[in-house]
Amino acid sequence: MAHLFADTQTPHILLVKTSSLGDVLHNLPVASDIARHYPGAQIDWIVEESFAALPGLHPAVRNVIPVAVRRWRGKLLSAAAWREIAAFRNTLAAQHYDIAIDTQGLLKSALLMRGANGLRCGFDRHSAREPLAASLYQRAFPVATQQHAVERNRQLAAQALGYTPEGQADYGIRPPAIVRPAWLREEPYAVLLHATSRVDKLWSEANWIELGHYMHEQNIRCVLPWGSATEQARSLRLAEAIPDAIVPPRLNLNEAAALLGGAQTVIGVDTGLAHLAAALGVPTVGIYTATDPALTGLYAGRCAVNLGNIDRAPDTAAVIEALPAFTDISQGMAAC
């Protein structure tokens, strides 16, 4: 397939993937593919403000343009919200893009991109999550739906830009350079991500405690992050039952990325932070209890393994058995 731009050009490309955390992570390989095929490309990215740190970790992304659709929806009578919306539109209008690509496939993302100067591209009506979004693109492309979200994103961008995606997905990010906090001693640790957005995605506390005891026996300290009062209470309960476990202070996204990036292994339920760990190349086990990981599970080659499925939660033994596949837990060394 011929390149859309001449090799001597420096194309300006806008990517639109606003949320959620896992979805934004699944779009990072698109930036890597573009940088490989167009080394001089200047890539901007529209993303929800709470996830803006993630595209910023990718060296090929020039500008991150935050939006606050979730917050704006609840404040449509606020003058401050409308000023923010106007500022976003002005920022977008001030840029010239050769092409804009919406890999979200939703009406809201297509509308956000509508103000961009450049060829607007996205999924066709049979491929988009919301078919009406396709009517707002100037070019729409078919992408098979029964495949992982990472590959769908890569294939859409490749069709829009005129290249063929090659090899394994490359997320292209590294943990941010943050000073190791005082509460995290210089010793091997595992991060246990017990928190998720839905009750039916949770893994039982008894399973986490059993896993925590196993880690302690292997001289691996357990860290139990949290993001809400309910999650903090669960972290504290688990820490009381797991020897030498740590409940950290509430972490922002950059701090969480640094914590995950330094772990020997990460075990997590269906949550965006588990995808972040896998994207950072950390040996990661995904635990699925209410969703099918085939389309949106961890996707990072031999660094990640998915266990469970809808109404088929794995037991602790299955998780422990999966760990030696890519991690030398007994030596506290990641083999991934």
Task: Characterize the structure shown.
With 336 residues, the chain is an alpha/beta fold. The chain has 2 domains: 12-161, Rossmann fold (3-Layer(aba) Sandwich); 189-334, 3-Layer(aba) Sandwich (Rossmann fold). It has 12 helices and 13 strands. It has helices spanning 21-37, 53-56, 69-73, 79-93, 107-113, 149-161, 205-217, 229-241, 253-261, 272-279, 293-296, 316-322; strands spanning 12-16, 42-48, 61-67, 96-102, 117-123, 139-141, 189-193, 221-223, 265-269, 284-288, 304-308, 327-328, 333-334. The strands form 3 sheets. A 6-stranded parallel sheet has the order 3-2-1-4-5-6, sandwiched between helices. Strands 8-7-9-10-11 form a 5-stranded parallel sheet, with helices on both faces. β12 (327-328) and β13 (333-334) form a beta hairpin. α1 packs parallel to α10 (272-279) and α7 packs across α8 (229-241). The longest helix has 17 residues, at 21-37. The model has no long low-confidence stretch (mean pLDDT 93).
